[in-house]
Design goal:
The structure is a homodimer of 429-residue chains.
Chain A lengths: L1 E9 L4 E3 L2 E5 L2 E6 L7 E10 L1 E6 L20 H14 L2 H17 L2 E8 L10 H13 L2 E8 L31 H11 L8 E7 L7 H14 L3 E5 L3 H11 L3 H8 L6 E5 L5 H9 L3 E4 L1 H6 L7 H4 L2 E3 L9 H16 L13 H8 L1 H7 L14 E5 L13 H8 L5 E6 L2 E2 L2
Helix pairs in contact in A: 2-3, 11-12, 12-14
């Protein structure tokens, strides 16, 4: 048993003083004014729940600073995807492991204690699934908690035929062969093999269909159903690009989100990544099912996706996605700032008390934990003992008060204000 | 004489190896493969010109994390201005000096070697101009080069009357009295007094009219003309908010930019801050005069101003403005990212070679120096010896090559990658 006390502790709504956190077996047993002897006094520190990065492709960290030249004129998500495919074709297992370890290490320095790794680059060759275990190893080495969101990727694009031919997807080509799930059965066989790596706490699994581009409606249906049966969360990329919506409408007569809703299985365990161009009516139904969106402001800006309308998208979690930059603080402020630019007004994500910072911190902690199906993201009894310690002497925070610290951090600081992180009761410094 | 050599040196277009920089009397005397003995070998460093922050209100650093709650519902630039006015009314000279020194120190840590301080908070009481000297002192203490862009602020708003009554501005009230220039004569008298503080190198002056809200058309005309005569740069806030445009049209029958163009004096020495909602036709005329815009992406997002269209605004300089966050690297990437979000395509600010990073670095260096009328922002003969040294071992830069370093830095890093800064040949570390 360890009792922690920082100068300030985040309650989910505000920073409070004189709070003690009792930790046992990597979990929080109690939090509050406990009157216990303090084992670890974190001086000049404020304690936040560890950030939860709900959507990452760690290997894409290798593209940082690449794919940022446009010799043939303006680029797009699709020209960037070509650069990503080139990387995929060239990556050796050693490079793959190294870039994943590096990305996860950078995440911890950015206050991230759990990553939801949306993993679709499976094979070195011939459906060998050699890279799946490497991602888990990389996370262990970096000391980050991982939910391996293991992706089903079966088709190279939505069927090119007319309406009703949608179930016939395009064949995988080139780099995409490294993503392949041959069949739903093959997918679950590999999930069963990966199950041995799960230790309940540090490594967990989740189910992913990459996108409506990568699977037929039938396959999405059975995968979502089986995930639910197994108690696994379900994630999917959706409506990041208008072209995907157009192609889906052409093939199925439905927008991607309508197609998903048509399956009729969305629930609290479902997280839909991006929803950049989702119709407000569709989104209202998604929210009614208790499913949620995951937004990735830095990546969506870098890729020129556009700005989702959070008035309809609702409370979301956050992901560092392409890892072109890894900064949950920058993701948080630009989640709000994107809406300010879109609406030309301030305070877009304000809560009932009119505050913005608690909503943004919630996106980076609680909502991410919900999306990954883990009891984390809160400094509360029963939650994983994952924390970020904020350096109250960081010059970028100077001028803070108990009331303004959260907004000062979210608007004004970056990784220099993060003193340390803790995963399951273990501090990194 | 000192000869510097880093691993990589920025030429304005790319990073080159084996470059030596010869410095004498705080200026660069030569740059290139000089074949000289190296005095200072900067190992594992890349050398950039010091960043030029072309638009700052240092005292607003005190608002960081404040004015981010919205108990009465959504906020706007105008509700934020009320919070800023409250700060203005309460600031003592000691607090003012302290917050300015802190902001300038934070700027140096962010790679900024020159600040254009758009200074309008002049008085402690009764037109005493007590705060002007304090800003200069604060800059000296922080070791930052300053161009004091000293502001004329004479009216509290554009005249409320009908068209043609525009020259009768509203009286200053409350906090605004601390900004007051009683008359154009009083303004130049104070500029003459400040001239004693100018040392040609570390402290210079520039002329400012705060905005069309703060001065009549007649006063803007004579101030711009006199600034030109004295060889001073001229800056003005313009068209950040649609309301300003509407009020100006009502009073003068002209948009603020049309009013400025009507004066007919815009030139290379003129910098127009924001231009968020400027009409493309007006902007084309501005560019034809060789005047430029200054954009402040972080502040314009924080304040919910909206996104300017850089296709019409053209090459701009950058400012940290409200200093809610001080990061030229974040400003640079969001200058490009804002356009990517606006146009839903990538590579908005690409140059002829299709590269984005050199354009963004130019905005943060050369164009800022042009806006402030100083020979800086370039590692070239005759320029001030102001540098940023980049830490090539920063984990956020890992994976860089000579070709990708600039984009890796601009897209993927923040202040942790800045090892040191140099002003006039003096390194801070």
């Amino acid at each position: 048993m360890t009792v922690l006390q920082a100068d300030l502790t985040w309650t989910g709504r505000r920073f409070a003083r004189n709070q003690q956190v009792r930790i046992e077996d990597g979990r929080i047993q109690a939090m509050g004014k406990l009157g216990l002897e303090v084992d670890v006094r974190l001086e000049r520190r404020a304690l936040l729940p560890g950030f939860v990065n709900a959507h990452s492709h760690a290997f894409q960290r290798a593209l940082r600073g690449r794919g940022e030249t446009f010799p043939n004129g303006r680029g797009s998500f699709w020209t960037w995807r070509e650069a990503m495919y080139q990387l995929v074709e060239s990556l050796t297992w050693k490079e793959f492991k190294s870039v994943c370890t590096h990305a996860f290490t950078e995440m911890r320095a950015a206050g991230i204690t759990t990553v939801g790794e949306f993993h679709y680059l499976h094979h070195l060759r011939d459906d060998d699934y050699a890279l799946d275990a490497l991602v888990i190893e990389a996370a262990r080495e970096a000391g980050i908690r991982i939910v391996l969101l293991n992706a089903y990727y079966n088709t190279g694009g939505i069927g090119a035929g007319g309406a009703g031919v949608g179930s016939i997807g395009q064949p995988l080509t080139g780099a995409q062969l490294r993503f392949r799930s041959k069949s739903v059965d093959a997918y679950w066989k590999q999930m069963d093999r990966l199950d041995d790596a799960v230790d309940g706490d540090l490594v967990r699994l989740g189910t992913v269909v990459h996108s409506v581009r990568a699977a037929s409606k039938g396959d999405i249906t059975v995968l979502h159903r089986e995930a639910k049966k197994r108690g696994l969360v379900f994630h999917m990329h959706i409506e990041e690009q208008k072209l995907e919506i157009e192609q889906c409408e052409r093939a199925y007569g439905l927008r991607p989100m309508q197609l998903l809703l048509d399956i009729g299985e969305l629930d609290f365990g479902t997280t839909l990544v991006h929803c950049t161009h989702t119709d407000p009516g569709d989104m209202a139904v998604v929210r009614g099912c208790k499913a949620r969106a995951c937004l990735c402001p830095l990546t969506e800006a870098n890729l020129g996706d556009g700005l989702a309308d959070l008035a309809s998208v609702g409370p979301s979690c956050l992901g560092t996605d392409s890892n072109a930059r890894i900064s949950m603080l920058e993701e948080m402020r630009w989640l709000e700032y994107g809406q300010r630019l879109r609406r030309m007004e301030r305070g877009a994500l304000r809560d009932e008390a009119g505050e913005v910072a608690p909503s943004l911190l919630r996106a980076a902690t609680e909502t991410g934990a919900d999306a990954l199906g883990i009891k984390a993201g809160r400094i509360e009894e029963g939650c994983l003992a994952d924390f970020v310690a904020i350096d109250l002497d960081a010059p970028t925070l100077s001028g803070w008060t108990d009331e303004t610290l959260a907004a000062t951090l979210v608007c004004g600081a970056a990784e220099e204000a993060i003193a340390d992180t803790c995963v399951g009761g273990q501090w990194s410094a």
